[in-house]
Amino acid sequence: MDEDVPSVEELRARLAEVRDRIALSAQRRGRAPDEVTLIAVSKTHPAEILRRAIEAGVTDLGENRVQEAEDKILEIGRERVGWHLIGHLQSNKARRAVQLFEIVHSLDSKELALRLNRLRGEEGRGLLSVMIQVDLGGEETKTGIAESELPELVQQVAACEHLHLKGLMTLPPFFEDSEHARPYFNRLRELRDHYRAEGAFADGPGELSMGMSNDFEVAVEEGATMVRVGTAIFGQRAGKKL
Ligand SMILES: *Cc1c(COP(=O)(O)O)cnc(C)c1O
């Protein structure tokens, strides 16, 4: 196990490479590289590796399970790094999630919106930022809310006084050739533009959380403002794909 643990120097090099690729993709579309936030997805990796990643310059970490994230957040704290919940949130973990996170990328139902709103209010922690996860892959992915249900959920979030709609997120089906993911990213940007014009994103332009290790360059070309990159920074995860 231990021999696979990347050093701070190794992590610094991988981060620099990912950041270079983000910058080139942004520049191809006349975008400024600093419009894109790199979220290092640290799920399954132990706190020690996360510490090294922070040492190497990571500013944002993405976790997909509340329990696993809790252990790491308690160990590492929030002073030097922001924590993003990017995985499906079960309703019985919602209270812990609103206590631990300031941003959830995976809002996928009206029920969850109402629950997060109520709990955040009870906890008295100010606004919780949420991104709505849109399922653009239909049968192939089944993660997130169907595009047809998006208008209602946007309205619902607007009516939630403790939630702040920050943007949209998607996770396209996996393709060997990342070009095949482009239509999904393009569609999410169209949806974001539509809701931006409607003023749905109260305090910003509407973030687009899209792009992973295998397709973040295409996502940035299509307008991503947050990319969620795990493997390209931390290496392969052990065990089954999460
Ligand atoms: C695991 C995960 C990622 C990162 O995947 P990589 O292919 O390792 O970059 C991004 N987003 C979500 C929602 C994930 O669960």
Describe what this molecule looks like in 3D:
The chain has 242 residues and is of the alpha/beta class. The chain has 9 helices and 9 strands. Strands 1, 2, 3, 4, 5, 6, 7, 8 and 9 form a 9-stranded parallel beta sheet that branches. β3, α4 and β4 form a beta-alpha-beta unit. The longest helix has 21 residues. It starts with 7 loop residues before the first helix and ends in an 8-residue tail after the last helix. It binds pyridoxal-5'-phosphate (PLP). The site of pyridoxal-5'-phosphate has 15 residues, from β9 and α9.
Taking all Cα atoms into account, the compactness measure Rg is: 17 Å
Distance between the termini: 19 Å
Percent of residues in helical segments?
A: 40-55%
Q: Which percent range describes the beta-strand content?
A: 15-25%
Class by SSE composition: alpha/beta
Each distinct ligand:
pyridoxal-5'-phosphate
The string of secondary-structure elements, in order, is HEHEHEHEHEEHEHEHEH
- Sheet bearing the most strands, described? 9 strands, parallel
Q: What overall form do the CA principal axes indicate? A: globular
**Average pLDDT value?**
95
SS elements, strand count: 9
- Low-pLDDT segments: none
How many alpha or pi helices? 9
Layout of secondary structure:
Elements: H1 8-28, E1 37-41, H2 47-55, E2 60-63, H3 66-76, E3 82-85, H4 94-100, E4 103-107, H5 110-123, E5 128-135, E6 145-146, H6 150-158, E7 163-169, H7 182-197, E8 207-209, H8 216-221, E9 226-229, H9 231-234
Parallel strand pairs: 1-2, 1-9, 2-3, 3-4, 4-5, 5-6, 5-7, 7-8
Helix pairs in contact: 4-5
Bound molecules: pyridoxal-5'-phosphate (PLP).
